[in-house]
């Protein structure tokens, strides 16, 4: 493929992984990221040394692209040098006006726009209508896409390095350790339901532990609920960590409890599956089956009762083993970097 392709912005490092996979397939794909997108969007969090020739940093703020005109002109001129733009949120708001063919990569923003009508959202809707393709990553968002104008849609899963995220021996101790790797956000992640279910679980399993990450909008609310439920001795708080520490945390737990409200997993869930961990989560099973062509081997949990039932199930070693094997197989089959890159290349060949 002779095309020069620019991926713009790197929220959550998913674009970094996609471009890394494309480079493994000898595609001339570059990535420009904003240092102001935060730690989880910094390529170094994913293990990058930032010396890859296809990786460059933009000094501007991705959420306020026009706040510094000089920075935006620099980004605009760079984008004009490529044959195709692969625009990650919120790049398409203004880079749709470069007079270059582009795709919009949707990873969750669509959950918000049907309910707002501000200037930025109107621009985003316009970019959907004018893009060569809208790339969909979250299966549960397909029902929302039906309310927007677009020319073509294409399902492209998140990609992870399944050689980096790998299986290790299960912890030798029978004292169960669960991990909730997400930010503290009750509305999206359902952390409050997890804590209430866990408080009931430890009534019969007092040595069980739940590891949580000390960040997010609802951190203080979670602390208050933990005190109210007398869970202090069973909660282990971790600071924001790099990916090697994260993998070690996955490998030394018995199951990962992701989120219970949204209906889809992000990279955290896939990373856990790649490490061979049972994943407890709420997903939209109908759309997942349509997108992947098979049932996703997760333990489905939406309510407090279902989360508690999952914890009880995970006590069974044979159940953990079954989900461990199936999780790893699914992650390698559908989310391996090269598998995702091949799907992306097929899209490029279709639209250019």
Question: Can you offer a commentary on this structure?
Answer:
The strands form 2 sheets. The protein has a 7-stranded parallel sheet, with helices on both faces. Strands 10-9-8-11-12-13 form a 6-stranded parallel sheet, sandwiched between helices. 39% of the residues lie in helices and 15% in strands. It is globular and about 65 Å long. The longest helix is centred in the C-terminal third of the chain and has 19 residues, at 317-335. It starts with a strand and ends with a helix. It has helices at residues 14-24, 69-79, 92-95, 119-130, 142-145, 186-189, 191-201, 219-228, 243-251, 267-274, 285-292, 304-314, 317-335, 337-351, and strands at 4-8, 28-34, 55-58, 84-88, 102-106, 133-136, 153-155, 177-180, 209-213, 235-238, 255-257, 279-281, 299-300. Helix 1 packs across helix 14 and helix 13 (317-335) runs parallel beside helix 14. The chain folds into 2 domains: 4-159 and 336-351, Glycogen Phosphorylase B (Rossmann fold, 3-Layer(aba) Sandwich), CATH 3.40.50.2000; 177-335, Rossmann fold, CATH 3.40.50.2000.
């Amino acid at each position: 493929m002779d095309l020069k392709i620019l991926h713009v912005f790197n929220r959550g490092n998913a674009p970094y992984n996609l471009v890394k996979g494309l480079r493994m397939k000898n595609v001339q794909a570059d990535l420009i990221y904003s240092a102001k997108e935060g730690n989880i969007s910094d390529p170094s969090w994913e293990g990058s040394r930032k010396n890859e020739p296809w990786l460059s940093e933009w000094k501007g703020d991705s959420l306020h692209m026009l706040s510094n005109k000089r920075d935006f002109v620099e980004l605009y001129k760079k984008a004009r040098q490529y044959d195709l733009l692969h625009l990650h949120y919120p790049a398409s708001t203004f880079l749709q006006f470069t007079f270059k063919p582009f795709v919009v990569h949707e990873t969750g923003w669509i959950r918000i726009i049907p309910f707002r009508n501000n200037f930025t959202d109107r621009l985003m809707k316009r970019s959907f209508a004018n893009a060569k393709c809208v790339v969909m990553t979250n299966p549960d968002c397909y029902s929302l896409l039906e309310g927007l104008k677009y020319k073509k849609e294409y399902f492209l899963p998140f990609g992870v390095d399944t050689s980096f995220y790998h299986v290790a021996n299960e912890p030798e101790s029978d004292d169960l350790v669960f991990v909730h790797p997400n930010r503290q956000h009750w509305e999206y992640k359902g952390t409050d339901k997890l804590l209430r279910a866990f408080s009931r679980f430890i009534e019969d399993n007092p040595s069980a532990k739940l590891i949580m990450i000390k960040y997010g909008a609802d951190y203080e609310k979670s602390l208050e609920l933990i005190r109210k439920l007398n869970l202090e001795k069973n909660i282990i708080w971790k600071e924001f960590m790099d990916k090697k520490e994260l993998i070690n945390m996955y490998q030394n737990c018995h199951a990962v409890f992701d989120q219970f409200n949204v209906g889809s997993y992000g990279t955290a869930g896939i990373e856990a599956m790649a490490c061979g961990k049972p994943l407890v989560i709420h997903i939209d099973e109908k759309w997942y089956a349509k997108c992947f062509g098979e049932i996703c081997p997760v333990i489905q949990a939406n309510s407090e009762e279902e989360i508690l039932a999952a914890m009880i199930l995970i006590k069974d070693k044979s159940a953990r083993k079954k989900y461990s094997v199936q999780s790893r197989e699914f992650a390698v089959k559908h989310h391996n970097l090269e598998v995702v890159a091949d799907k992306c290349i097929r899209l490029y060949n279709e639209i250019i």
